[in-house]
C-alpha cells in the first residue's frame, strides 16, 4: 500500500472513530488532518532549499538582535551623555554611540539581505509546486477530471499558489523577525528595569487573548474566501468554454446573474476578512496607547522622584512603541498563514489524489503487438449504479474492423473505455494479445491503443505541431507523409502558411471535417495496433463525411479497429458489426449478413438509413 493510500486511510479511520460524536469534534479532527497534510507538502518544498532557509534564519536572528539592542543603547547613551555634561568622562558616551550606529547599520543590512534572498527561493519553491501540480494533474484519470472542474484546477494553479508565494516570500521572514523582536524586547526591558518589563508583559496578556480570537476567526474566513474564489473562477471558465451554447440559447443573462452571485459571495468573504483585520488593527493600536501611557505615567513618576534614570524611561517608551509593531506583523502573518494554509490544503488534496487506473507493480511487456482483443466475463458499473456491462464476452481477432451499433446507453462507449483502460472492469478480464491490460504499463498501452473521438481537440499552434502529437519528435517528412496518407495534405497546403498555419484555440481556424482529418493524421503517425473511433464522424456534414471516409479507409488498413457510429455509411467499411443492447451483444455478423436478417435490429436501422438518404435526394 502506498503512502498516499495510507494517508487517505488515516483520514477515513479518524473520521469513522468519531462519527457518533459532536459535529464540531468531527470538523476539528478533519481540519487537523488537513493541516498535517498541508505541512507535509510545505516541508517537502522547503527541504531542497534548507540551506537558503538557514541563511535567512541566521540573518534574521542576528539582524533582529541588533535591532532590539538599539533602544537600550539609546537609553544608556542618554544617561552617559548627561553624565558627561556633569563632568564624567566622554568615553562611555562615544562607545555607546558607536555601538548604536553599528547595531542600526547591521540590523538594516541583514534585514535587507533576508528580504532579498527570501523572494528568490520562494519563486523556486513556487516553480516546483506549479510543475508538480501540473504534472500530477495530467497523470490523474479521466474520472477525476470529469468530477473536478477545470476552473477549480485553474484556481489551484493561480490564486492558491500565489497565496503560498506571498506567504513564503514575506510572511515567514516577517513572522520570525517579529517574534524574535517581541521576545527580545521583553528580555531587554527586563534587564534594564524589571517593573517596566512587567508593565509590558501585562499588556501582552490581552494582546495574546485577542490574537487567539483573531487567528481562529481569520482561519475560517480565509477558507471561505478560497472556496468562493474557486467557485467564481469555475463559473467563469465554464461560461467561456461553453460560450457557443450560452449564445445559442441566449443564456447570457442567466450566466451573468450566476457569475454575479459568485463574485458577490467572493466580495462578501473578502470584506469579512478585511473587517476582521480592521478590528484587530484598532484593538492593537488602542492597547499600544494604553501600555505607552501607563509606562509614561509610572516611569515618569519614578524619574521625578529620582529612582529611575531618564535614559531608562526613554528606552522603555521606545520599547513600548516598538513592542506592538511586531504584534501587528504577527497578526498580518496569521492572515497570510490562513490564506496559505487554505491554499495548501486544496493543493495537497489534488496532489494526494491517485489515478484510479494504476500502472502494474510487475508489468508484462507486449512486445510487437498484433492487436487481438479478448473480453472475458467483464462486468462494469459506474459507482453504485446498475451495471452498464452485466457480463460481457467478446473476441476480436487481430486486424479486424469491428463496428459497434446500438442505442444510447447500450454500453458501446463503456466497452471502448475498458479496452483503452480509461477505467478498469469490476470483474472479469480484458486482454490484448493474451495479456491483461492491467498488466501493461500505461505508456505501452497508449502506444498500442489510440482513441479518436468526435471532439477532435486541437491545441493552439501549427497544424504540423498538432499532427506531431501522435509521435513526439517525428520528422517533418513523416508528418507530411501521414497527412498525405489520410487525405489531409491538400487542404493543409491550401491554408495561408500550409503546415505552419496556426490553427488557433481549439482548432477554431479549421472546419469540423478538417479537424477530424488532422486527428486522423495524428493517429496514423502514432501507428497503433488498435484504433478506436468513438463517433468520429457523427458531427460532420455529408461533404466533410465523404472527405473523412476516404482518410478513414486508409487509416484502418492493417489495424484492429473498433468503430462506434450511428451513421451506417461508416459502419459499411467494417468487417464485422456488433449490435449492443443493455450491455449485451444481441447481433454479431458482417454488415451484409445482418442486413439479410430482415427482422433484426441492424436490418431495421439500415432500412431507416436508406429511407433517410432517399428523402435527402
UniProtKB/TrEMBL annotation:
SMART domains: AAA (SM00382). One of its GO terms (cellular component) is plasma membrane. Keywords: ATP-binding, Cell membrane, Membrane, Nucleotide-binding, Transmembrane, Transmembrane helix, Transport. It is found in: Cell membrane. InterPro entries: AAA+_ATPase (IPR003593), ABC1_TM_dom (IPR011527), ABC1_TM_sf (IPR036640), ABC_transporter-like_ATP-bd (IPR003439), ABC_transporter-like_CS (IPR017871), P-loop_NTPase (IPR027417), Type_1_exporter (IPR039421). Residues 373-607 form the ABC transporter domain. Signal peptide: none annotated. Residues 56-339 form the ABC transmembrane type-1 domain. Belongs to the ABC transporter superfamily. Lipid exporter (TC 3.A.1.106) family. This is ABC transporter ATP-binding protein. It comes from Tessaracoccus antarcticus.
Amino acid at each position: 500500500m502506498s503512502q498516499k493510500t495510507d494517508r487517505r486511510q488515516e483520514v477515513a479511520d479518524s473520521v469513522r472513530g468519531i462519527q457518533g460524536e459532536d459535529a464540531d469534534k468531527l470538523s476539528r479532527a478533519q481540519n487537523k488532518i488537513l493541516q498535517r497534510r498541508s505541512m507535509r507538502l510545505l516541508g517537502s518544498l522547503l527541504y531542497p532549499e534548507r540551506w537558503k532557509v538557514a541563511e535567512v534564519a541566521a540573518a534574521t536572528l542576528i539582524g533582529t538582535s541588533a535591532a532590539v539592542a538599539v533602544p537600550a543603547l539609546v537609553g544608556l547613551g542618554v544617561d552617559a551623555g548627561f553624565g558627561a555634561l556633569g563632568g564624567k568622562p566622554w568615553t562611555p558616551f562615544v562607545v555607546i554611540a558607536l555601538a548604536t550606529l553599528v547595531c542600526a547599520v547591521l540590523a538594516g543590512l541583514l534585514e535587507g539581505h533576508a528580504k532579498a534572498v527570501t523572494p528568490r527561493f520562494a519563486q523556486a519553491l513556487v516553480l516546483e509546486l506549479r510543475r508538480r501540480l501540473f504534472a500530477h494533474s495530467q497523470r490523474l484519470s479521466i474520472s477525476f477530471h470529469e468530477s473536478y472542474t477545470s476552473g477549480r484546477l485553474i484556481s489551484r494553479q493561480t490564486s492558491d499558489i500565489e497565496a503560498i508565494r506571498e506567504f513564503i516570500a514575506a510572511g515567514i521572514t516577517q513572522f520570525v523577525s517579529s517574534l524574535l523582536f517581541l521576545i527580545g524586547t521583553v528580555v531587554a526591558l527586563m534587564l534594564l528595569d524589571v517593573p517596566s518589563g512587567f508593565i509590558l508583559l501585562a499588556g501582552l496578556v490581552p494582546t495574546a487573548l485577542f490574537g487567539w480570537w483573531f487567528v481562529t476567526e481569520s482561519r475560517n474566513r480565509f477558507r471561505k474566501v478560497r472556496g468562493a474564489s474557486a467557485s467564481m473562477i469555475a463559473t467563469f471558465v465554464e461560461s467561456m468554454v461553453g460560450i457557443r451554447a450560452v449564445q445559442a440559447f441566449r443564456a447570457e443573462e442567466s450566466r451573468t446573474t450566476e457569475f454575479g452571485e459568485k463574485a458577490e459571495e467572493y466580495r462578501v468573504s473578502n470584506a469579512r476578512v478585511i473587517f476582521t483585520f480592521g478590528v484587530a488593527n484598532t484593538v492593537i493600536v488602542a492597547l499600544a496607547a494604553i501600555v505607552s501611557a501607563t509606562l509614561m505615567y509610572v516611569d515618569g513618576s519614578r524619574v521625578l522622584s529620582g529612582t529611575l534614570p531618564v535614559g531608562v524611561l526613554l528606552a522603555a517608551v521606545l520599547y513600548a512603541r516598538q513592542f506592538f509593531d511586531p504584534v501587528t506583523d504577527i497578526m498580518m502573518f496569521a492572515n497570510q498563514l490562513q490564506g496559505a494554509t487554505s491554499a495548501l490544503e486544496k493543493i495537497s488534496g489534488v496532489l494526494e489524489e491517485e489515478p484510479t487506473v494504476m500502472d502494474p507493480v510487475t508489468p508484462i511487456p507486449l512486445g510487437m503487438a498484433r492487436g487481438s482483443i479478448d473480453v472475458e466475463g467483464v462486468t462494469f458499473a459506474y459507482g453504485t449504479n446498475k451495471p452498464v456491462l452485466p457480463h460481457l464476452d467478446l473476441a476480436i481477432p487481430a486486424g479486424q474492423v469491428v463496428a459497434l451499433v446500438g442505442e444510447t446507453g447500450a454500453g458501446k462507449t463503456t466497452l471502448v473505455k475498458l479496452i483503452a483502460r480509461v477505467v478498469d472492469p469490476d470483474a472479469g478480464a480484458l486482454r490484448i494479445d493474451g495479456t491483461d491490460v492491467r498488466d501493461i504499463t500505461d505508456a505501452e498501452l497508449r502506444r498500442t491503443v489510440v482513441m479518436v473521438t468526435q471532439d477532435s481537440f486541437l491545441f493552439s499552434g501549427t497544424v504540423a505541431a498538432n499532427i506531431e502529437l501522435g509521435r513526439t519528435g517525428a520528422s517533418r517528412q513523416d508528418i507530411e507523409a501521414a497527412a498525405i496518407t489520410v487525405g489531409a495534405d491538400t487542404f493543409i497546403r491550401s491554408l495561408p502558411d500550409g503546415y505552419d498555419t496556426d490553427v488557433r484555440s481549439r482548432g477554431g481556424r479549421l472546419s469540423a471535417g478538417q479537424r477530424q482529418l488532422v486527428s486522423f493524421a495524428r493517429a496514423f503517425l502514432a501507428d497503433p495496433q488498435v484504433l478506436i473511433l468513438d463517433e468520429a464522424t457523427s458531427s460532420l456534414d455529408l461533404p466533410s463525411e465523404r472527405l473523412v471516409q476516404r482518410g478513414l479507409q486508409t487509416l484502418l488498413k492493417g489495424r484492429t479497429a473498433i468503430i462506434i457510429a450511428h451513421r451506417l455509411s461508416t459502419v459499411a467499411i467494417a468487417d464485422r458489426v456488433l449490435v449492443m443492447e443493455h450491455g449485451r451483444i444481441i447481433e454479431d455478423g458482417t454488415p451484409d449478413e445482418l442486413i439479410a436478417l430482415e427482422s433484426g435490429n441492424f436490418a431495421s436501422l439500415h432500412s431507416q438509413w436508406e429511407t433517410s438518404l432517399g428523402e435527402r435526394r
